[in-house]
Amino acid sequence: MFTLDPRLAQDSLHVTDLGLCQLRLSRDARYPWAILIPRRPEVIELYHLETEEQAQLWREGTRLGEAMMRHYAGDKLNVATLGNMVPQLHLHVIVRTRGDDAWPGPVWGQGEARAYTEADLETRRGELERLAREAGLLA
């Protein structure tokens, strides 16, 4: 049974479920930042997924990332699985723009996260759900 890591639950908001992954929104308002978590139990590394599931994870991440880049007019798309702090496999999909708070460096360890207002959080959540639908990731 799939169980979400408590830190992912704390640091992000559920948006919707895709074919393989739970789509979540990072609570850091500095960047358009989605997190995809395969809804599979005890998956820590990519190779813990079946071969087709690995391909599906990348399809979901790249299709969502492409839609996010168009919508948010990004300069670079960062897609990463780190897992040093949270071992549960999760894929970060982050739109970066020249001059953002961490540009050109990585977003991790740069400055302080900025919280969304409730209204902005719901707006961004709705945008991500719409982008996932437009990318063909939702029925």
Automatic annotation (TrEMBL):
Residue ranges annotated for the HIT domain, each copy included: 35-103
InterPro entries per record: HIT-like, HIT-like_sf, HIT_Hint
Residues making up the signal peptide according to the UniProt record: none
Gene3D superfamilies per record: HIT-like (3.30.428.10)
Pfam family, one: HIT
Protein name: HIT domain-containing protein
Organism of this sequence: Salinicola endophyticus
The organism's taxonomic lineage, starting at the top: Bacteria, Pseudomonadati, Pseudomonadota, Gammaproteobacteria, Oceanospirillales
